[in-house]
Amino acid sequence: MIAGLGLVLGVLLGLILQPSVPIWLQPYLPIAVVAALDAVFGALRAFLDGIFDDKVFVVSFVSNVLIAGMIVYLGDQLGGGGQLSTGVIVVLGIRIFSNVAAIRRHLFHA
Amino acid sequence: MDSRHGAPGRLALVVLAAFGILVATAALQTARSADVTQTSHDELVKQVLARKAQLADRRELVDDLTSEVRTLETDLLDATVDGRAVEARLIEAGVTTGAEAARGPGVRIEVDDGPEQDPRAEVLDVDLQKMVNGLWLADAEGISINGQRVTTLTAVRLAGGSITVNFERISPPYTVLAIGDPDTLPSRFIETPGGQWWLDLQALYGVKFEIDSSEENLTLPAADRLELRHAHIPDDPEGLP
Q1: ipTM of this complex prediction, to 2 decimal places
Q2: N or C terminus: which one in chain A shows less Cβ crowding within 10 Å?
Q3: Contact: A54, B19; criterion CB under 8 Å
């Protein structure tokens, strides 16, 4: 699938180019990955449901990453420590699991 | 709208590639941080070891300098008649206080806890204190417990389940060495309250208590540290005996 190739290409580019992340951005990297993962799984589910839309995918990807980063940043400023980021990860985890369950039903009819 | 329902378009591909880059970067970042954390950990360990080695060297230096000072002191005192008299008094005082190592005939007392089932048969700090007091009363001239010299400032205490002498932990069986007249010391010790206490302990609880007065040549080490906190030399030297 072309989409899979796009993903692989991205990973290879990341490994080869090895962009160095500025220090202030580093704490947000893990949460950005989880948020992006949620968008990707959502897109995969939509694709299997036959309702995939480019624009929706792009918007959901970007907004997920931005909002997750913003919530974590807010948590840092309010002094909540890791609690807000824990909340974000929990919610994203729930969404990822429900999307994966739907994908599983499509693929294995189980 | 440039999108087709049901299939990813070019934009989706770009975003997927961006996702791939994001994942790869995050993974690389974590790998790099792990290296840094490990390096700082190793660095700290190295520093701790270096400081420990330095401390050990300094302690050795202190020991060397102390013995050098003593040698110089002795040489200085040996140089004059008055000096030698002072030296003699110093040594005598050192033996009784425990600052100097001492050698001579005396008694060896071996004590140990009684049968394990009886909690009263355990040798306590007060028992050893009474023994030491009794030995002093019987004119012992130097006492050591398990190799620890008993000085005028020595504390024999129970701390955390074991007895400490000079703040050093010792464990049973306890060997008490006392320098004195081997003919009279044992009998005089038995007559003191401390000696009577130990006879009772032995009779009632089966505590091991053996006196061996055949020791010809006991050597007692000097005490490790003698800190004078309150006593000081008076300004008027004529007042000293």
Answers
A1: 0.81
A2: C
A3: no
